[in-house]
Amino acid sequence: MIDVDGELRVFEKQERERLGLDSTFVPWVEDMANKTFSKKERTKITILVAGLTMAHDMFVQGALRGIGYHVQALDCPDTASLRVGKEFGNRGQCNPTYFTVGNLVKYLCALRDERGMSSSEIVEKYVFLTAGACGPCRFGMYVTEYRKALRDSGFDGFRVILFQQTGGLSQALGEDSGLEMNPTFFWALVKAIIAGDVLNALGYRIRPYEVNAGDTDRAIGRCREIVYGALEARTNIVWALRRCKGELGRVRVNRIQAKPKVSIIGEFWAMTTEGDGNYQLQRFLEGEGAEVDVQLVTAWLLYMLWEARHDTQQRVHLRVADHAKSSLGAMGPFGVTKKLLGVQAADTAVRMIFQTFAQACGLSGYPLPNMDEIAQVSHQYYDNNVRGGEGHMEVGKLIMNVLHSKAHMTVSVKPFGCMPSAGVSDGVQSALSEKLPGAIFCPVETSGDGRVNFYSRIQMYLFKAKQAASSELEEACRTHGVTVAQVRDVLASDSGRSNALYKADHRYAGTAADVVADVAPLLTRSRAQRWIEHVRGLAVRSRRAVEVSPQSVVERVRSVSAGVPMIVERARVDALIIRDTWRARKRTSPEAIDSAAQ
Amino acid sequence: MAHRQLAIGMDVGSTTVKATVVDADTKEILWSDYQRHHTKQPEYVLSMLEQIQASLGEDCSRIFLTGSGAGPLCAPTGGKFVQEVNAVSLAVEHLHPDVGSVIELGGQDAKIIVFREESREGGGKTATASMNDKCASGTGATIDKCLVKVGAPPDMVTSLHFDDSKLHHVAAKCGVFAETDIVNLIKSGIPANEVLCSLADAIVLQNLSVLTRGSTLKHRVLLLGGPNTYLPFLQECWRLRIPQTWNERGYQYPTHVPIEQLIFVPENSQYYAAFGAVLYGLHEPEPIGRLAPLDSLHEYIEHGRKARLAETAGPALTSSVEELADFKQQYAIPKFEPVQFAPGEVVRGVIGLDGGSTSSKAVLVDYDTGRLLAKAYQLSKGNPIQDAKELLLKIRDAVEGVRDDRALDPSRENPRLEVMGFGATGYAADVLEKCVHSDVNIVETVAHMISAVHYFGSVDVVCDIGGQDIKVLFIKNGDIANFRLSNSCSAGNGTLLQATAEQFGVAITDFSDAAFRAELAPKFSYGCAVFLDTDRVNFQKEGYSKEEMLAGLAQVLPKNVWQYVVQIPRLASLGRVFVLQGGTQYNLAAVKAQVDYIRSRVPDAEVYVHPHTGEAGAIGAAMETLRVVKRRGRSTFIGIEPAIHLEYGTTNDASTVCHFCENHCKRTFIDTKAPDGSTSRYIAGFSCEKGTVESKEAMVAIVEERKQIARAYPNLVDYEARRAFMHVYDTKPMPEEGTPTNDFEIRRGLLGQRRVAITRPMRRSSSEAWAARRRVRVGIPRVLNMYSTAPFFRAYFEALGIPKTNVVFSDETTEELWVKGGKYGSIDPCFPSKVAQAHVHNLLFEHHSEKRTLQYVFFPILTHVRSWIEDTVDNTSCPIVAGSPNVIKAAFTKEVDFFQQRGIEYLSPALSFVEPSLLARKMFETFESRLHITEDENDFACREAWKALDAFDEDLQVKGQAILETVEAEDRVAIVLLGRPYHSDPGLNHGIPDEFQLLGYPILSIRSIPRSRTFLDQYYKRDVEAGVMRSPLALGSMWPENFSANSAQKVWAAGFASRHPNVVVLDLSSFKCGHDAPTYGLVDSIIGASKTPYAALHDIDANKPGGSIKIRVKTYAHALKLHEERLQDARKKRGELVRAVDRKRLELLELREQQRQAQADRNPIIDAEIAELRARVRSYEGPSDGLGEHNDDRGKLIQLRRKSADGPPILEVSRHAAE
Prior knowledge:
The structure holds two protein chains of two kinds.
Chain A lengths: L3 H16 L26 E4 L4 H13 L3 E4 L5 H10 L6 H19 L5 H7 E7 L9 H11 L6 E6 L18 H24 L8 H19 L3 H13 L11 E6 L1 H5 L8 H7 L3 E3 L3 H19 L19 H27 L9 H8 L14 H11 L5 E7 L3 H17 L4 E7 L4 H30 L3 H10 L17 H14 L2 H62 L1 H8 L1
Parallel strand pairs in A: 1-2, 1-3, 3-4, 5-6, 5-7, 7-8
Helix pairs in contact in A: 2-7, 2-8, 3-4, 4-6, 7-8, 7-13, 8-9, 9-13, 12-13, 14-15, 15-16, 17-19, 18-19
Chain B lengths: L5 E7 L3 E8 L5 E8 L4 H16 L3 E7 L7 H4 L2 E2 L2 H12 L5 E5 L4 E8 L7 E7 L8 H11 L3 H6 L15 H13 L4 H20 L9 E4 L1 H5 L1 H17 L10 H4 E2 L7 H10 L12 H19 L1 E2 L5 H11 L14 E10 L3 E8 L5 E8 L4 H17 L2 H6 L7 E11 L2 H7 L4 E3 L1 H13 L4 E5 L4 E7 L2 E7 L8 H10 L7 H7 L2 E2 L7 H14 L3 H21 L10 E5 L6 H14 L4 E4 L6 H17 L7 H5 L2 E5 L16 E6 L5 E6 L11 H17 L3 H8 L16 E9 L4 E9 L5 H7 L4 E3 L5 H14 L7 E3 L5 H7 L9 H4 L1 H10 L10 E3 L2 E4 L14 H15 L4 H4 L3 E3 L2 E3 L3 H16 L3 H35 L4 E5 L7 H4 L2 H7 L4 E3 L7 H13 L19 H15 L3 E8 L6 H14 L3 E7 L5 H53 L5 H18 L19 E4 ...
Parallel strand pairs in B: 1-4, 4-5, 6-9, 9-10, 12-15, 15-16, 17-21, 21-22, 28-29, 28-30, 30-32, 31-33, 34-35, 34-36, 36-37
Antiparallel strand pairs in B: 1-2, 2-3, 6-7, 7-8, 11-20, 12-13, 13-14, 17-18, 18-19, 23-24, 24-25, 26-27, 38-39
Helix pairs in contact in B: 1-12, 3-11, 4-6, 4-7, 7-9, 17-23, 19-21, 21-22, 28-35, 29-31, 34-35, 39-40, 41-42
């Protein structure tokens, strides 16, 4: 007997094909996202890292190798990376995207085309590890761009692994993940970043004043090897940095040179990179006779901690809790305190680690930025809640540089297409510079192919900064009643102050003027006079302290006693919360549920 | 006599070398000279140094160089480089101590220096300088190019006076735009003096608005640089516009001093930079700048230059003579041999004509065989009718011989041409359709596609590079599946190659031979023509030869095409068969670069050059004409002789000016009269549809017609844009004092805190406060995310008692609004954020007056906006959008506080629309003391505001659903506009959605897509059940980094369009949009998977690119028509399938019945089914049941209705939409 339904199914299928009604739509799905590698694969996977300064990338490589991964740092992105980025990236991207995305694709293409590896072999054996964010600028979408470029360049399936900057010390990638984002992993990264910062800061501090060209770079090169070795072997990093101090201390310097101090601020990547991404801006400025003050990656860590603290404090008094990303709605009754304490602890820890590393390496007198002050001075111009890139920091740092005479000139580097920097800060800074008399402020855009104009623009402002540095040195000499030659003579015979690691107290923008202010008393006062002044100063300070102490003690006692009822009431609330929480937990415990069921 | 110390200052610019010799002690200029260097900078510098040494001896011991070409010459001369602005500043300070600002227009640079007196003691002056980035226009090079285009004689240019009474639009933002506008003005018949004055005005305003970075120029103003020195009309323009900005900004300047003294051009200003370089250099200690022996410069000229170039240059076009020979053999385009006709032969053919912007072409194609018989070429003369007449004459003469010849030999019987049809494409097609009744008027893209497919059959990609445009068409199944067009900004087109070759004195026909001779090639940056030109100047300075430059230029062409215009890196994904066409393919160097580029990425590619590469468009038009005429059986063409003898006249005077709107377009009327006496008028040069009519009655008719179309095909984008700012929700009255109110109280411990629900009496502000609020007026700019949040703010203020007329939004974005208020910003971000300054200006200058004061300008920072996507990682605004209120505040308080001046307070609290409680708190903090409100009132107003926002949103969705259901029922398509909320602004979207609406396509906004689960399940259920996505409103499976709310919604809408068969996509994105950029690839992938028709305009900016929009609209309309046909076909096929299955079932059942009968086993149920099936199948044989039948009533008006479950569609939405 004929199978009507079966025959009909076959017929309908044929008819559908004949009529072209057969096509089924398969929606596009992103299949390259959130991929990692398994524990089993760990031994054959090489993790590629990049994105910070050369020292940082090298140390991250060493630190992660130290905890058992195969790691390879990519070279600093160059113009060729930009070209590759533009070819495989979306149109209209910002320059940091093109450089960083292009740099990865360029490296993989070199593996394929020069080392003869097949694309599938590369996809199998390499992964790229990078920091991620949740916006609001394009930095948070870099990984979208990485995937597109990798797919379009023939590396479909290549794994890009993200660790969230604000994700805390433990981030899960899945139980079987070969990459464990645990405290060990993040401690390795923190060590690498802070050590890199300390060495970079010292390099920029010493190099402009070196007597023999190239001494600093050679010493820094040796230091990098020492630190890298310690990170890779997981030996004591502080001890390694102490060894670096010896290396750097041997560089001969002459600090009595009126060099303009130029603070580089701007978009994070553009001001940090040392390659074509900012046309080797740091080296160019040094070549033009300036001392460069760079921003440290540690400051970025502090900014993120500030964000967490600020956002929490802003919401803590809301009568009804919200439930968005920065809201506190999902937190328990003690969640806010826990978060604030955690952030404070992390801030303190970062500062302590930095200063420990700095002291070990000989980087003295280097205070990390006060994030609250930066936020406060910038808020009326650049709202602290506007985020992305450096947020209000670009504006805040400019104000701080002027307020605290931190530099003669501020260069703000804005990569082409950067939204927070070129699209917002620049407009605010332009108006602000009108309100900061005497500020030499040079906003400059890096488009990747306008090197001559870029340099030209900086030279334009640097001319004024040089004049400012010279007149500042003259002014310092006049104020302190000494000459440059006298100061030079003193330094020639004072091994401590002529040491490469010596740092005079900050009084002026320029290093030479600070040295003059520090050395002048040696010339204009006898040892006895200096002692007397020292003792007098101490006495004045002590007297003032004694004068105010009783009053302050009384005030403190008064305020505490006035606050006692409030403290008692608050403690009572805490007790009630604990009690209720305990009761609620008891009610929902498995035993309670069982007994209720019975 | 003491030994003199002399220093040389040398200014090496982009076109000239200027030198001065200065006495170091007295600063006196002892010697000076000025030479054009013809790109031989080192040679001219050397020659000048030799002259200096000859006349001043060995006293010249130091040299300082400045200028854009000075860099490479420092080492060989021993000179020190001095930055140009520093040099000019020092010279000006020295020579004109009382000058407050300098405006210098150089060849490639424009600079503005503003001197500021230092407040500190002895501070002197500080110069704040700004230079154009490489993108900006307004430089000497732009002016030079435009002068060439205008073709004005030098004596006219140097004697012309500025007249601001007849100015026309010129986009000076970019040199390419400016040139395009200038060309269009000339073509429209605008006199040269008006064009030049318009250019000067545009350049002056551009520099005043952008280059000053929002600063006010201080008096006296010094004008420097070639254009400022030699063009009196430019000087006069500065003298008009600068005082206007002074007056606008309240800047005090001496009004009694003649303007010629306040804004002046000094004598010998060409030497300022060179002189200033010396002044600068003398600050440098010896031996910096010690003049080296001239031998080293000799050595540099002889050898150094080349060696340096080899390090950075790229490879040549060919690696060997053999390779070149092979290539030429394969790709040289065979010369076209016109067909010879026998005496007396009747040649039956159709004519295709391609009226391009720079040249026009026509072809004659055999009516029977489709063979190309003759072709003609004509450089465009600006009048499409004249061009067409001459081309037709050439075609006729090609067949019949020149009339004069025939007159000489009357006995000779010539072949005779019988034109069977005529079709046109290109910009001339519209006018020809009207006056010669063409059979075909097709858009260029389609014409090119038809032509390529005609010659090469199964083609994958057609790349047409013409004089102005690059068109790349992706072909699937013999039709355009997608296309990319260069926007007005991109370079690499034929004109650029030609212009560059001519600058080197190379004829375009010799381009390739010259380029093939090069042994290396500089690496140009691809992208914009201005960038290329900057590179060209730089490379010239570096010493590349013209051959090398041409080779480099040829090599950049494919990058422009594939990386800049096409933006699809994996070429192989497009297919294997590439056809290159367009006039540029005659240039073999360009072809070689293209072929190499394609082959390096698609190794098995077949790359062909169209055999009639220049006439591909015309051939396409001819082929389409052939098809249409044969199908129709007749031609509408008036005939070749009447066309050749068509009489026409053009009028362009006061009578043709359109007065139907503020634009006052200067139109051109082209009146034609055919030999049969019929007349027609073609109107050109208008910017909107109102310009197409001549009388008020006709205008009224047009408006009425538009209204009808708008009713029939609603445009929800436009609706949304208007409704967002209207009063759409009546807020409830504020509860009385003491009304029980539910609230929470925070009980705080030392470590923990908890919220406790309480009920307490409502607290209200005093009646005086309520009365005071009745008088408050709040101004809000109609910009950015206000387009999605304004109903919230309006309702908030209304709930607090502010009258609805006192919530004042700035006017809609228009060109006038932008021109009036766009000069305050110091940065150049995307237009949507830049235009905010014009809106705030509008509020300050138009909506605020002494009688009607605004107390507040409220421009909140919206850090986060609402989104319906369920799995986003955040819902942020773009940082530029969020930060704009800060930038605007900076712009309007930079030198003068415009708010304070008017007693207005500028309020820009940071608000997050994803945290209602925090938002309410921030609103309260902002308005508590200003509006004297209680927190309870604030909270109530916020709750009402949310309801208003919801009502706004729901209304859109209801209308969206009605449209979708109707188009689905009628096999039509609706276009969803993928854009950010502010792309609803007609001033930002340039009316592009309206263009499609007029073609009969309803327009949906993203927010009008219904989001109810029941509706979406129709399209998503399968994927949700299969686990592809979590819910219809989830996006994680497509884009995990979806923190940008508006981007995420855009990508989601693309996903919806990919699933809905009746929804197609129009993607708009603003130039420099940072949050859209990462979505380009995503949207492409999503849309690509479903083959949904898709059109994108990704770089829209302040200027409306009329031509570019037109070609895209026409091409896309072609694709939409095909898509609708496919939808209708699919319905027919589905009907056919149902019928076939029924028949088959009947057949099978009958068979089984027979088998059963054989076994005597009858089944009554099957018998009944067979009877029913028989009846149904019989009905198929009769008249159509309507299944799959659809009458194409495009052009008729349809009413969009909502489908109801149990009856015909009932809800008419079009009326609301049009209101």
